[in-house]
Amino acid sequence: MSILKTIKEKLKWKNVREIPLVSSSIEQLDRLTPEQRRIVAVSFSAASLILLLMIFYRGYNAVSSLKGSISSGQSELNKVAEFSRDYKSFSEDIKSITSEIRRRPKTFQLKNFVSEQALRAGISKAMTTGLKEELMPPKDTLQEAVVNVNFSRVSVKKLMNFLFAVERSRFVTRVKELHMKVRSDDNRFLDASVAVSTVLEAQK
Questions:
Q1: Distance, CA of 165 to CA of 186 (rounded, Å)
Q2: Residue 13: pLDDT band with limits 50, 70, 90
Q3: Beta carbons of 16 and 22 less than 8 angstroms apart
Q4: Residue where a domain stops, chosen among 103, 127, 152
Q5: CA 180 to CA 193: how far, in whole Å?
Q6: Is there a single domain that holds both residue 119 and residue 175?
Q7: Hey, how many other C-beta atoms are within 10 angstroms of the C-beta on 101?
Q8: Among 45, 149, 166, 183, whose Cα sits 20 to 30 Å from the Cα of 173?
């Protein structure tokens, strides 16, 4: 069936044969040569294809936007879940730390502990200066205490013994900062600055 016959049948089915504009268009198509009709057919097909592509493109954008929203929502849910896990772990850590520090003797003092561990490591009082304790602002039910101490002309072995003693202590202590340099007058010894910290129950 030719394009012209197809158009005429469709117009007949829709009962629009009497519309002047349509009748004029049909008459113009009747006067076209076969070659011109083929060009019209190709143009009509191209226009239809463009229309379909536009519809598909809009639909694709809508789907992409929906996928983006779902992905964003999933990301937010993952953050909430991760926060919940971290908070649970943090709460458990607080309980564990609180339990540990309550086992310490009530007479425990971080400043005295640091001084004692230095002596046990072979670091004499003459080699120790600047023994100062500082309390940090409370966080929830806990509070950090820090003691800064300087060692002069200390051997690597003695310094390592002191650090290990602090880290392995059952009193919940740790080395927070360590700075050291080799002495210029004798490279067998070091000058070191150490910050030792522990956790206390926050004062009410």
A1: 26
A2: very low
A3: yes
A4: 103
A5: 6
A6: yes
A7: 16
A8: 183
